[in-house]
Amino acid sequence: xxxxxxxxxxxxxxxxxxxxxxxxxxxxxxxxxxxxxxxxxxxxxxxxxxxxxxxxxxxxxxxxxxxxxxxxxxxxxxxxxxxxxxxxxxxxxxxxxxxxxxxxxxxxxxxxxxxxxxxxxxxxxxxxxxxxxxxxxxxxxxxxxxxxxxxxxxxxxxxxxxxxxxxxxxxxxxxxxxxxxxxxxxxxxxxxxxxxxxxxxxxxxxxxxxxxxxxxxxxxxxxxxxxxxxxxxxxxxxxxxxxxxxxxxxxxxxxxxxxxxxxxxxxxxxxxxxxxxxxxxxxxxxxxxxxxxxxxxxxxxxxxxxxxxxxxxxxxxxxxxxxxxxxxxxxxxxxxxxxxxxxxxxxxxxxxxxxxxxxxxxxxxxxxxxxxx
Length: 373
Prior knowledge:
Elements: H1 2-11, E1 39-46, E2 49-50, H2 59-69, E3 72-78, H3 82-92, H4 96-104, E4 110-113, E5 117-127, E6 140-150, E7 153-159, H5 166-173, H6 176-179, H7 183-217, H8 230-247, H9 251-259, H10 267-333, H11 348-369
Parallel strand pairs: 3-7
Antiparallel strand pairs: 1-2, 1-3, 4-5, 5-6, 6-7
């Protein structure tokens, strides 16, 4: 791994790793030192079936079986450190830059070709259930799956709490005919699994957007919608942006896998990547539509709030006009002149009050008829 550290300073800026290396050995002294603790599963597959083993295989033992009897090895890791991944990287001759990306994570979805392997990065998306969307709601949670595809090996490196591949592995083991196609069949299965997750999340996000849209355009008190909290819409827009960052960059790699011949991809499997690329293109269009729709909803919400404020100002102005009449009358008769009309008249007070009420009612009726009240 010293080569990786030397290359990092030249090729890429330094980044903070997801986990710190404690400086102690990551290997258990009670087992094979070539078996890193980050390995979730390690198995050899031959003719579409998992080769039985009396004890868990280390990557070194699994590769030795493959070189002797054929087949391929599938190794799954979860958030390995540099020390944990060093042995595997050396055993399978993985490129240092790809190894660095797999350890550091936080990568953009991509496909990179090296001499004897393909390095693919997928971002997994998980929908976070919530009773009601708030300004702080987390809608989507992301993770990463990095895949090394070789002639006789397949290595997955997973980051994040979601996106377990255990069920997918069992599903593939139930389909020996497909698994017999080798590592490219596993790569397709993972790509299809990730994109199917995108479709499910897109449907759930659509429900959240529909809910917000209904609230924005629902008539409020007096038939005037006062909109919703703009922070909720903005939070949903941020989550959709996170979703888009996972989907959009992956489209080109899927197109390459489906269109360009590659010696590590079985021709029969390559046809299936077209279906994955089509599904991904549909999800991308859907996510782009979400972004545009949320922009429109946010603008409409601000317009609704502005209309509601104008409506309030009109009502305040209308009532101020009505109150101005008795204020004026009271102001006139509040002057301290000795000689004023009606001051000593027996019916002066009720007449003035009656005239004031009639004028106020007339103004109220006129304003109400014109929609100001």
